[in-house]
Amino acid sequence: MKKSAAFPYPFLFLFLLIKVIAFRVLIFDTKSLVSILLIEFPMWALLLSLVLMAVKKRVWLAVWIYNFLVSVIFFTVTLYIRYYSTIPSYYDLQQTTQSGSVGRTIVMLSNPFDFLFFLDAVLVIILARKWAAPKQKWPLKYAAVALALIGATTTTYALQQPIVDVSYFAKENGYIQSQVVQMYHRSNETAHASFAKLSPKQLEALKGNEYVEMDQQKGFGLAKDRHLFVIQVESLQNFVIGKSVNGQEITPNLNKLLEESAYFSNVFQQIGAGTTSDAEWIANTGLYPQGMIPTVNSLNGEEVPSLPRTLQTYGYGSATYHADDVTFWNRDVLYPVLGYDEVYSNEEIPNIKPVGFGPADEVVFDFAAKKLPKQLVKYDRIYANIVTVTSHTPFVMPEEMQHLDLPAEYEDMYIGNYLQSVRYADEQIGAFIEELKDQGLYDTSLIAIFGDHSGMHGSLVTEEDQALIEDFIGHPYTLKDQFTVPLLFTGGNLFNGIQMERLGGQVDIMPTILALLGIEHETPMMGHNLFHYEKNLLGMRYYMPGGSFIQSEQIYKAPGAKLPEVLYDMKSMGTRGKNSETKKHIRDTDTLLNYGDLLLEPYLKD
């Protein structure tokens, strides 16, 4: 078939412009065409120009590959922001090689309209059959120079701006520019340049407390010389505790355990892009994670002062149990950095009763329980860190593992699947507690149980799910409901049904554990002993726009890619106006996060 004359260049750029406009409107709700033409489009058009100038043969193939790659990026960013409510960095996009474990979630996040991003790839194939390839002409070189000048100007301007929130930064400066600035900051370690060291007294003052030496704090030494078990529960949110549906408790075993526990019901997740692995990092170091980059992916291998290492000096042997590939989220680097004596992953834990990522939680708990007798002979005291997996999105459980008889409206709903998976996890926790009692360990142990992060978030939570959650909890599903995770401490003859509503964060888990064990940590931590301090200030970076904070009386959500800033009252979750206290908390949060970066810096790659 004889082809028509060479296809005109301008139409290729027009196709790209239409796709960029769709991307900006969908992701950032951008309404300014001028902003798109001057900030976002020039960088993508420049890359296309370079492709066209560099390729002499098979031009249509090069154009198709470029358009397809841009489509993949736009498609991935769209799904990512639906689930995490934030823009992914170049580092996050590298994690797509690990997406096989969450394939069903990706399917659930997408809708048919998303695939329109690939429409131009189909169009290029059609054009290539009818038109000769575009030929390089002098106007293209001039266009490339003009685009390069515009791109250099916008990127230079972006490099001068601080990244407080990546999504908002990308909206204001362009997606490609935001990635360039992140890489520049990462290589030059200038993302948070105003580092300031804080004394323990200054740190507590930022949170609104008067510092007290640890050995003088409430609860210090209450669980001295006890074994330690830390159970990190996948996707466990606080709103399910004590709740029932159809007359059935969602967490009957945890509810019963509360009668002999100290339960903190106002503890917020503080994870970043590393999700579950970030929770492991926070709980075992008392330090903030990086935020936009998974902390485990940046570790340089340097040994960190951690919960396992501190406990080792007091005769504890440590072991961690996680029924997933140890290389997932670079745990093969994380665990040696934390200093565990024994590491058990899917290589050691039997691959039976598989659900989602790997073996069901009952297999993991049973495996851990069988290891305890040998460890009790080997070590004076033991620290076991158990990370559950089964209650992971998309929360689809085999029928034989479903313990709830849900009302018809919950069937096949995201919230219904979630409640089933949490009920299953609760059953396994209860069985493990009974196993500890049977082995005579319950009365000689301190047991900490906490949720790693939210499960009910992102676009997977439909309007129907929202209505069911509101009916389930008795009020609208708020930011507070989404981000609070249960934290409880238990063990024989330690507590008698204490419930505390004081604000806490995951950085407070390790300091509180050490205080109860009567052990002091030699290096600084970002958290504090929840039994002693009544006020708190928590910095948030990932699931909330950068610059956000959670404080004992207020929750501040900084402006993001689409939504303006908003300030909530902690108790009522009603909106309120900013005041001088809010502005002070914003400044103090910046100081807090900078100090957290300073403590983290020695353990990160250059």
UniProtKB/TrEMBL annotation:
Cell compartments where the protein resides: Cell membrane
Start and end residues of each Sulfatase N-terminal domain: 227-519
Main location (coarse class): membrane
SUPFAM superfamilies documented for this protein: Alkaline phosphatase-like
Residue ranges crossing the lipid bilayer per the database entry: 7-27, 33-55, 62-85, 105-128, 140-159
Enzyme class: transferase
EC number(s) recorded for this UniProt protein: 2.7.8.-
Membrane topology: Multi-pass membrane protein
Keywords noted in UniProt: Cell membrane, Membrane, Transferase, Transmembrane, Transmembrane helix
This protein's pathway: Cell wall biogenesis; lipoteichoic acid biosynthesis
GO molecular function: transferase activity
Family, similarity comment: Belongs to the LTA synthase family.
Protein's name according to its UniProt entry: LTA synthase family protein
Species annotation: Planococcus shixiaomingii
Lineage of the organism: Bacteria, Bacillati, Bacillota, Bacilli, Bacillales
